[in-house]
Amino acid sequence: MSFPQPGDVVRGSTTGRPIMALLDLLGRRWCLRVLWELHQTPASFRDLQARCEGVSPSVLNTRLGELREAQLLENGERGYQLSALGQELVQQCLPLALWAENWAAQLPARP
């Protein structure tokens, strides 16, 4: 398993800039969802799979491995949990969650 690291050539960028490596990692299927589902409480593999509603076991296993290798997740007493680095990343995403709530409130209701 290998995750994109700063300095690597990644999908869509040959610059090696750290942000490009991060965007490549976070752009992988289910990656952001896994991080989001773990931002409040740790979870076992089965619990996390249920929270992610439809992720296959093989994809979830791959993403967990990549996120552990990137030091964003760790195995804790109660299952998978965000590492300090993962918690910091999710904190940076919280303004996006607030923006999304405001956006949803401004959209007209669907019939």
TrEMBL record:
PROSITE patterns, per database record: HTH_HXLR
Origin superkingdom: Bacteria
GO MF entries: DNA binding
The UniProt record lists the keyword Transcription: yes
Residues covered by the HTH hxlR-type domain: 17-108
Sequence intervals crossing the membrane: none
Keywords from the named record: DNA-binding, Transcription, Transcription regulation
PANTHER family found in the cross-reference section: HTH-TYPE TRANSCRIPTIONAL REGULATOR YODB (PTHR33204:SF37), TRANSCRIPTIONAL REGULATOR, MARR FAMILY (PTHR33204)
Protein name: Helix-turn-helix transcriptional regulator
